[in-house]
Amino acid sequence: MNEAIKTVVMPKWGLSMSSGKITDWLAGVGDEVADGDELADIDTDKIAGTLESADAGILRAIVAKAGEDVPVGATIALIAPAEVAEDEIEQAAEQAREEIESGAVEEVTGPMTGAVEVGGRTISYATLGTGEETVVLVHGYGGDKNSWLFVQEPLSATRTVHALDLPGHGESTKDVGDGSLETLATTVRGFLDALGIERAHLVGHSLGGAVVTAVAATEPARVASLTLVAPAGFGEQVNAEYLRGFAAATSRRELKPHLTQLFADPQQVTRQLADDLMKFKRLDGVDQVLNTLLGTLLDGDRPGIDAVPELTRVRAPLAVVWGRADRVLPPDNAEQLAARTAVSYIDGAGHMVHMEQPNAVVRAVESVAGTPEG
Amino acid sequence: MARTISYREAINEALTQEMERDSSVIVMGEDNAGGAGGSGEQDAWGGVLGVTKGLYHKFPGRVLDTPISESAFIGAAIGAATRGQRPVAELMFIDFMGVCFDQIFNQAAKFRYMFGGKAVTPVVIRTMYGAGLNAAAQHSQSLYPLFTHIPGLKVVLPSNAYEAKGLMTQAVRDDDPVIFCEHKALYDTTADVPEDSYTIPFGEANVVRDGEDVTIVALGRMVHVAEEAAGELATSGISADVLDLRTTSPLDDETILESVASTGRLVVVDESNPRCNVATDVSALVAREAFSSLRAPIEMVTAPHTPVPFSDALEPLYIPDAQRVVNAVKTVMGGQNA
């Protein structure tokens, strides 16, 4: 195939994704597309996302139509400059079509999962990419490594990206000790040690944002940049009702109304998302973990964490992203951070910016981490 | 870490983890190890379909092979439960329960009530039910409605491997007698099951599929039949809310009523015989509590009022299948698509 023809493939957003359904093409054949332009809406069994272009050129062919469910890794469209001959495009499209129909799509390697012992606990993580620079993603309260599904993939094009499960979460040991910020930050430091990571770009969401801030404050030499996504520990506002409701819910029916608080678009709360969370909440020890951490996150109805003193010790370049429709930690909380850096307020995003508007998070990380040559 | 394991392995894993966690958990039944009293291999069987295999050597002295006398060993298990053990007794086929009705109905189910709440009887009786393996009329029944009828018993019917592990763990930890009904045709089915222990609470139906036009209530193996039917219905534009009851006692009235309130139509799929079964029970509940929501008469898809046939030509006709569920849904839809 002519090297000028770039393929757009069905992405692998997370460990369990094996195929995706194109719900809508946002770009049409003949459209000029730039790197980062939105190409198509894609539905996975967990959540819907938007695929952005990784190349610039003209969208020459759409191989998989809207409504089609195609395996991860399948070529769904072709991008090429205008000078590439039409018959070459046709030939490439035909070949891609055959691959989808015959099931001969080369399997895309998803994240590699691993586990390390840190402070007597097993810490689970998923790694994508082999770049020289390292990014570590730290989720929030009740989340896990899979919540970064839309962010980890694009960042991994030129970097090694680890998403870890904090203690008590995902597949890590269901114990958080005293549940303090210090305990969690110590675990993240121990994780860097265990993987032999000397220096990393840290990205943290919500509680994870406070955790990576604490790590950056205590290990300035090891933190190349810091990206905070709706971080805890700043400002005076917190949705205590959400946090307590999430911790207390014992059925999907009880949980679901709380989950809708997480997103600007409540449709994002799929049954799979709620089911997966219930499966997590039923595990032995999780109840205690969530209640212990609740004691860290809340002081009565007020925020229980103050990361401002830590932030004053942070020297690394800082990026902050906040969803305008965040109903868990409202965007007003960003004021204290605005003094340090320009905060990106994102439309169409609630608390889960990295799931609803993942490209905004990717851009924020790249604004401080730079873009190494791929 | 979740991995794919079978229904059989999921139950075995729940028992293993509970036996590790709590030394009062014991396992007993016919051939639960196998080989006792003979010169052959110990743990040759692990129960008639191998569910308890491996426990005998892992937990010396805590896996007991019993004589073929259900009334004796079920009675012994219930007695041990009142004295601080947590026995999990395997009564091979639910069809054989008749010989120990007194121990179950009149003893285990009554202790908490008759001793003013001071007695607990944390016994689990595991048993196989269901047709589909040509095991004939005395080894194929779905008798869970009998136990559902008795106050004081909890009745559990896991529909897949994930459910089986969580419900078994809950059953062992529960302080009341639990009748744990395993469908013999499900043992080799697989699902993603976490390695860590977890519990699924009793009395909470699982909405396995969201829909708007009709509520399909199912349990045990029939959940798969209902899901297959729902998949087929979707192709003709009918969306079904499919509920897996998980437990018939306690029954999750709330989820059933909530679903019917939004769909206005009910089909209940139950593998047991049609008189006084779970289908009639759920239908009566909905007729009484949600009559004004109903837009069509309730349909029940059940086995006929006959013994389970041995004939391999007749047995498939006896067991409710997806086509019958589709037909029932089309009946309640009144030939319309919404």
Automatic annotation (TrEMBL), chain A:
Record bears the keyword Translocase: no
GO cellular component, one term: membrane
Keywords tagged on the record: Pyruvate, Transferase
GO molecular function: transferase activity
Keyword Transferase: yes
Stretches assigned to the Lipoyl-binding domain: 5-80
Stated name of the protein: Pyruvate dehydrogenase E2 component (Dihydrolipoamide acetyltransferase)
Organism of this sequence: Haloechinothrix alba
Lineage per the UniProt record: Bacteria, Bacillati, Actinomycetota, Actinomycetes, Pseudonocardiales
From TrEMBL, chain B:
Recorded GO MF terms: magnesium ion binding; oxidoreductase activity
Domain of life: Bacteria
Domain Transketolase-like pyrimidine-binding: 5-189
UniProt-listed SMART domains: Transket_pyr
Key words of the record: Oxidoreductase, Pyruvate
Protein name: Pyruvate dehydrogenase E1 component beta subunit
